[in-house]
Amino acid sequence: MDNIKDSQLVFINENGEEVICDILFTYHSEKFNKNYVFFIPVENINDDGTNDVACASYIEKGDSIGELYSVESNEEWKELSEVFNSFLLDAEEDNEEE
Asked: pLDDT above 70 covers what percent of the chain?
């Protein structure tokens, strides 16, 4: 995949297909001592024009390569939901100012 931008990532889905995603933002949790990335698939848009946001923890391996891992616990999801909701509120406020 040579057409990947710095603000994108690629992962292999359960069907063995490469999926290109736009990175929304990254977050480091002090509580869990993990890095997380929030992202949306570039091509998988829902029928209503929206797109599902995904989140995974990641470990950087260098040279813009890393490994994604599933979020492991409900406690992690709770923190990540709060972080994402703050992201949405900030984005909404930024749009209102424009």
From this structure: 93
